[in-house]
Amino acid sequence: MIDLPVTIDDVRRAEAAITGEIVRTPLIRAAALSEIAGCEVFLKLETTQATGSFKERGALNKLTTLGAAERRAGVVAMSAGNHAQGVAYHARRLDIPATIVMPNGTPFTKIDRTEALGARVVLRGDSLVDARRAADSLAAERGLVPVHPYDDPEVIAGQGTIALEMLADNPCLDTLLVPIGGGGLISGIAVAAKSVSPQVEIIGVQSVLYPSMYRVLQGIDPGLPSEGTTLAEGIAVKEPGQLTRRIVAELVGAVRLVTERQLEAAIELLVERQKLVVEGAGAAGLAALMAEPERFRGRRVGIVLTGGNIDARLLASLLMRGLVFGGRLVRLQGRAARSARSAVASRRRHRRSRRQHRRGAPSAAIPRFVREARRVGPGHRNAEPPPCRGDYRRDGRRRVSHPPAVVRRCRDGEIALCRSVGTSGHRPEVEIGCSATAFRAALQCRSAGAQMSSAGHRRPQHGRTASPPG
């Protein structure tokens, strides 16, 4: 092995420095994915870090190497994503002033999230290249320590601790699939994995729209990226680092390119089968596995899920497209659409009527009781009402034609029967209040005045209202 800028000793020192300060993320066997791909799939869940990304490892390792004077001066980093949050989070915890430089077009949510972690955000330039130049200028002017997102030996060593944890949890892994942006993550993992298990194969994954490291390994100038926006924005790097390209060229077996549709399918698969929410860059390893399952058949494959910071609206749109592509969601037009709307409306009416029936809707039960009461003679002191289902819980009132009597709800849930409350034309109007129980009070009717009382209560005097219980 040639002399590399990062060694296994650097990675082990980084492991000792950050142990207990970051989450030792789990390595889980993905049974559903293993069955689909025809190989043993193991997922490293870096999504469970405090900021939802592996970037904390390299940022924290870099911060722990600073001297007292450097800590007082502070640090500066250029990033519009996970690296910014990783630096801000641990700089605040270590009481180190942090300045994050972002391009002018950075979404406000990312700016607010970074400022909430205690960092000072400075907007400079229209691209990440302009922001990097501005960060270098601030570092020179104010004496700040730059924290590069990937092309720094301490950052690379910190990312390499992932491989130490993976091989400690499962020494039988023979293939590691790792997303590549600037190359810091795969460089650290390759150094650590090849030192611990030389036979393990390291495969990098990039978006087909940003194949910078792929071109470097092919002996082609990185050039300009393809026009278009990629779902894997975390690895959308125009040019890899100088240190990282040396390590990747020496230790990484191959770099695979994945399309946007393959990235979307990988995110959908993780959500539906593994119940894991992962950002586009984090799903790149699984996308490469599902693109060439025969290449990995029968092997033990470790995949690093690098982050889970995906916008909720983007995730919802992505899952909806997946349903359409999979034929599980269709749009009806014309007669079919009208028939479907009619069926849905009919079902809603049916459900509404069933709910009213279960609740003992007073619109049906109370009038039947009133009609029955009109046929009861003076001698029937304990006439039973017709059977009603459920309790009457509505507070609305209903007016029906009836001899002068009114039913009201009392405080203890029993029934009080009162006098008429008004007339409409020549017929009396009776106000019926929907009460708690199904009119299990005794009833007495007379031809004039229709005086009634509740069962178990004193019969009211002529022209008076029944006294409510209690």
Gist of the model:
This protein is an alpha/beta fold. It has 16 helices and 15 strands. It folds into three domains: 8-48 and 171-325, Rossmann fold (3-Layer(aba) Sandwich); 75-143, Rossmann fold (3-Layer(aba) Sandwich); 361-470, no CATH class.
Describe the overall structure.
This protein has 470 residues and is an alpha/beta fold. It folds into three domains: 8-48 and 171-325, 3-Layer(aba) Sandwich (Rossmann fold); 75-143, Rossmann fold; 361-470, no CATH class. The chain contains 16 helices and 15 strands. Helix 1 packs across helix 3 (55-64) and helix 3 crosses helix 5 (82-93). The termini are far apart. The model is unreliable at 362-366 and 368-470 (pLDDT under 50).
Keywords:
470 residues; Rossmann fold; 15% strand; six-stranded mixed beta sheet; four-stranded parallel beta sheet; 40% helix; alpha/beta
Furnish the topology, listing elements before pairings:
Layout (H helix, E strand, L loop, with lengths): L7 H11 L8 E3 L1 H7 L2 E6 L9 H10 L3 H6 L1 E4 L3 H12 L4 E5 L5 H9 L3 E4 L4 H15 L2 E2 L6 H17 L5 E5 L4 H13 L4 E7 L4 H6 L24 H10 L2 E5 L1 H14 L10 H8 L8 E6 L6 H14 L8 H25 L3 H13 L22 E5 L3 E5 L5 E5 L2 E3 L2 E7 L37
